Amino acid sequence: MGFLRRLLLCRLLLWALPGLTLWALVGLTLWGLFVQPLWALPGLVAERPNILVIIADDMGFADLGSFGGEIPTPNLDRLAYNGVRFSDFQVAPACSPTRAALFTGVDPHLAGFGSLYEEPSPNQKGRPGYEGYLNSRVVSVATRLQDSGYRTYLSGKWHLGHEPGQGPGSQGFQRSFSLLSGGASHFADMRPAYSPDPDGKAAYLDEDHWIKKLPEGFEYSSQYYADRLLQYLRGEGESDAESEAPFFAVLAFTAPHWPLQAPDTVIEKYASHYLQGYDHLYAQRLARARMLGVLPEGAPEAARPPKAVAWDSLSAEDKRRQARAMAVYAAMIDQLDVHSGRVINYLEQSGQLDNTLIFFMSDNGPEGHDLDETWPAEQFPEIRKNIDQRHDFSVENMGKPGSYTLYGAGWARAGSPGLRMYKGFPSEGGTRVCAFVHFPAQIEGGRIVRETIAVKDIAPTLLDYAGIKAKRGHYLGRTVQPMQGRSRRAEFEGRESHAPGLPLGTEFLGKYALRQAHWKLLRMPPPYGTGEPELYDLALDPGETQNLAAREPAALQRMVEFWESYVSDNGVILPDWVSGY
What is the C-alpha separation between 375 and 428, in angstroms, rounded? Predict the structure, then answer.
């Protein structure tokens, strides 16, 4: 808060409290000028909103009913239909780079996640922006909100630091329960999704303490993450004064990230739902997403991914395995909605829902890789050996503790119908995700925003709603990266934005893209692309089917220049080695 506003507050205090002693008045004056911000005094200004961010992990664009899906998701759909859906919300092609941008408002190449923590190339190791944790040059939105009086909580996946002092507590979350790695068993066995240690356990922090055993009551990941967040929201373990402050809460599910697992009773609900296969589901979801308006009518359909063979070409046994994998996946989306609903119901019953800004998103597109692509034995021999030896891959065990299932390219294509490829790729299927905002107090619902919104825009937008202005390039006396995202409050509220559409770049494991207005520059290696820069007009072709590089040389050159500026501005180091991912 500015000095003049604090001075005004002090004048009000001096006028309103004439009976106080001189020393009390001096103390109040100093407190008002330098310590206590104006927003902490009830009644002097409008109430600041609570903020809840819900993150799904590897969820398809059309998994929710409100985006074209057939899985019952009534709790999230109610918010989406009564809120504002985004038809072009852009993230990074993988989880930790997206989360870095979400929490800082800064490109992941500057925030510490120019590559995955697990897969930096030799020429990237030790370089600024490739630390594998949120570095000291960025400030998290949680830190900014905590410093301005918010209670700050996180429950679920972190993946933004793996060593002591790199957990949520180091980035402004006062209370947290977190999984530090990218994935793990969804049950209480703590089996890691990937580890070179044959006896390794998934790394969790309970507050700031490493734990060797998951707490009593941990039956399934989505259930327990919601349980713990509800404890925080109810103020359990806090003073009455603390629990009166607004909250910033993050519910970071690990569903539906592999290994695909869910409670048996929920899986059985979907056991016969997907026997017709992924090509049938693709057509069904594409038609519904177009009818709902979250995908454009009449646009060319994206090509089938190289690994997504036609359903009718599969053997009977392969169809049985594939249908079971999708049943488990659907059960995970089902439970993600059920446990989101418990948090939503608490906010409603406690009278806080209308004044809580709820933002929902997936961290990237659906996961379409198979096990050989994700952890190739020749590049990760110990990790792959442990995965193979510690899990039961039978159809009968799919979804249970000790299983290890990915659902593959065919279902991923149906997860984001009409969009090219999936997680790990900077094409639209990897970066355009399901997202919506619900905030009845200030945002009129029932709309779809079609402008491009970037994940790095969310931090400055949340700060805008909280009434916090981030000083550019400085924080508490230290130099930091200025937030590159911009507040999109105007678009959220249905007002015209006069901010220019800036180029939006992304790079992941050597594959890259850059968007400017309706143009998109894309470079992916064969068999997924040409290996050369490609050019697409997304206004007409969101499925990236017509490469215009040869027909539009001037536009191509302009986009290449934008890309070169992006590389320079963000310290991008293209890797000299990549895995098969």
Answer: 24
Whole-number Å distance between alpha carbons of 323 and 275: 6
Question: Which tokens is 43 given?
Answer: 């009644």
Give 477-491 pLDDT, tens digit per residue. Answer: 889 999 999 999 999
User: Could you check whether the bond before residue 527 is cis, i.e. omega within 30 degrees of 0?
Assistant: yes
Instruction: Indicate if the pLDDT at residue 13 is higher than 80.
Output: no
The enclosing H or E element of 308 equals none
Q: What are phi and psi of 442, to 5 degrees?
A: -135, -10
3 state DSSP class of 448? strand
Spans of all domains in the chain: 3-40, 50-495
Q: Name the 3-class secondary structure at 237.
A: coil
Q: If residue 5 lies in a helix (H) or strand (E), which one and from where to where?
A: helix 3-16
SS3 507: strand
Q: What are phi and psi of 287, to 5 degrees?
A: -65, -40
Question: At a CB cut-off of 8 Å and minimum separation 6, what does 455 contact?
Answer: 89, 90, 91, 92, 98, 101, 102, 361, 485
187-230 pLDDT, tens digit each: 999 999 999 998 899 999 999 899 999 999 999 999 999 999 99
Cα distances from 136 to residues 200, 449, 456, 462, in angstroms, run 29, 34, 18, 21
- What are the tens digits of pLDDT across the range 132-167? 999 999 999 999 999 999 999 999 999 999 998 999
CA distances from 174 to 154, 343, 513 (A): 8, 19, 36
Sign of CA dihedral 249, 471, 91, 568: negative
Tens digit of each residue's pLDDT (9 = 90 or more) over 318-372: 999 999 999 999 999 999 999 999 999 999 999 999 999 999 999 999 999 999 9
Strand partners, 479: 474
By the 8 A CB rule, do 418 and 295 touch? yes
What percent of the chain shows pLDDT beyond 90?
84
Burial 366-378 (b: 16+ CB within 10 A, else e): bbbbebebbbeee
Task: List the alpha helices (DSSP H) in 427-538.
Answer: 428-431, 458-465, 489-492
- Catalytic residue numbers read 95, 159
Q: Is the pLDDT of residue 38 over 70?
A: no
Cis, bond preceding 49 (omega within 30 deg of 0): no
Contact 152, 172 (CB under 8 A): yes
Q: What is the pLDDT of residues 61-71, one digit of tens each?
A: 999 999 999 99
Contact, 46 vs 58, CB < 8 A?
Answer: no
Structure confidence by residue, pLDDT tens digits, 534-559: 999 999 999 999 999 999 999 999 99
Tell me the CATH number of domain 50-495, given options 3.40.720.10, 3.40.930.10, 3.40.50.620, 3.20.20.70. 3.40.720.10
**Contact 280/83 with Cβ under 8 angstroms?**
no
Q: What are the distances in angstroms from CA 335 to CA 258, 328, 415?
A: 15, 11, 17
